[in-house]
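Work Package 4 report. The design task specified in the project plan requires that, given a folded chain encoded as structure tokens, an amino acid be chosen for each position. We show below one input record used in the internal validation round.
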């Protein structure tokens, strides 16, 4: 799917949205007004939209770090304090498995979403009151009218496949 992100200014005298109605087959999502770049990035993360965010890298890190921390903790407890009879060959894999599970569970519950790398330069241009508009379509050609309107208004935008 092709996605067009447009950073729309909503100050006095600015057009409120992209000119014209969206083309047929184009889904439009409008994020709330942002106070600045950091706030807009947090709105994108909180939206958990698969077109605007990535989550796999953060989830893999959480599982991996959970496994390392769990294995190290159980190894320390087994070696230093006789946990599980001091059997490191049982304690370390058990700790790694439990830690990986807890890391994955924590990632699923708290979320590991981050804005896409292609979207970060656009988010850095956000000003107070700016709104991120996302147009998604199966065909890239369907986004051309919205892209032309963004260029005509002088709005920063990026097209992601």
């Amino acid at each position: 799917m092709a996605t067009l992100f447009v950073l729309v200014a909503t100050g006095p005298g600015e057009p409120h949205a992209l000119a014209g109605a969206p083309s047929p087959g184009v889904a439009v999502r409008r994020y709330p007004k942002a106070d600045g770049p950091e706030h807009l990035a947090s709105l994108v993360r909180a939206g958990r939209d698969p077109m605007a965010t990535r989550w796999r890298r953060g989830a893999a890190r959480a599982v991996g770090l959970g496994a390392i921390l769990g294995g190290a903790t159980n190894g320390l407890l087994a070696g230093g304090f006789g946990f599980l009879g001091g059997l490191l060959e049982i304690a370390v894999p058990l700790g790694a498995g439990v830690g990986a599970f807890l890391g994955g569970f924590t990632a699923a519950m708290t979320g590991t979403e981050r804005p896409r790398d292609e979207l970060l330069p656009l988010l850095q241009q956000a000003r107070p009151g700016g709104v991120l508009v996302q147009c998604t379509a199966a065909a890239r050609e369907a986004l051309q009218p919205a892209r032309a309107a963004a260029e005509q208004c002088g709005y920063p935008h990026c097209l992601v496949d």
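Residues 60 and 138 are 29 Å apart (CA to CA). Validation will be extended to a larger panel in the next phase.
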